[in-house]
Design goal:
The chain is mainly alpha-helical and about 210 residues long. It has one domain. Helix content is about 80%, strand content about 0%. Helix 5 packs antiparallel against helix 7. The protein starts with a helix and ends in a 7-residue tail after the last helix.
Length: about 210
């Protein structure tokens, strides 16, 4: 059974035991009283609660990733334009090419690309009088710098959301494992309690093997 099937099956088995007086009475004789069954029910409730939390955190991670990609796309478009303009405007100024990092292709890896962009905008001020002649405005440069700050913030937020989603998944998996272990104990108890009454095992749902 997959995870959702295991949760649904466990809930049905426990609810059946709690709502069937005859089954509950016999289980009690073998150490599985109503209080124990309620503990099992609480395991189910916890798995369901943590499952909902895990999906919420996963959704927030997706949103954070989309936000990062959108902001980085904006930053890359403006940066790419400025690189092209600067290469043309400063084509005969070898020192400025070095200062601005105009040689070679732009990196794809996040931090390598960010370092290139920060170097470019960190050293651009002295050549702005020249670049303005090629339609690079102060407003654009300010926008580009602000986008780099937003990219870093979005990257950190994405990592934070990814970490929270990972923790939520671990907690859900641990809770599900606890439920599985508890259900194995209930199954073993039921097999002893109803060794001569297999119809009660079928009523509980133990004809289906736990995955």
């Amino acid at each position: 059974m997959n995870q959702n099937e295991r949760i649904g099956w466990s809930k049905t088995v426990i609810d059946t035991a709690l709502n069937n007086t005859e089954i509950q009475k016999q289980l009690t004789k073998f150490g599985m009283n109503k209080e124990e069954l309620l503990i099992g029910q609480s395991h189910v409730d916890e798995v369901i609660r943590l499952g909902a939390m895990q999906r919420k955190e996963k959704g927030e991670r997706f949103d954070a990733t989309d936000e990062l990609n959108a902001i980085r796309t904006q930053a890359k478009e403006l940066y790419t334009k400025h690189i092209a303009d600067a290469r043309h405007a400063l084509r005969n100024e070898r020192g400025q090419w070095e200062a601005l990092g105009l040689e070679g292709r732009r990196k794809d890896e996040f931090f390598a690309w960010l370092a290139q962009a920060e170097t470019f905008y960190g050293n651009i001020d002295p050549v702005m009088p020249t670049l303005k002649k090629y339609n690079v405005t102060e407003a654009e440069v300010t926008e580009a710098r602000n986008l780099l700050v937003k990219v870093v913030d979005a990257y950190q937020n994405r990592n934070r959301e990814a970490s929270e989603a990972k923790v939520a998944t671990r907690l859900r998996n641990e809770a599900l494992q606890s439920l599985d272990n508890w259900m194995k104990r209930l199954k073993q108890t039921a097999e002893l309690a109803f060794a001569d009454e297999p119809e009660h095992l079928e009523t509980l749902g133990f004809t289906t093997k736990v995955a």
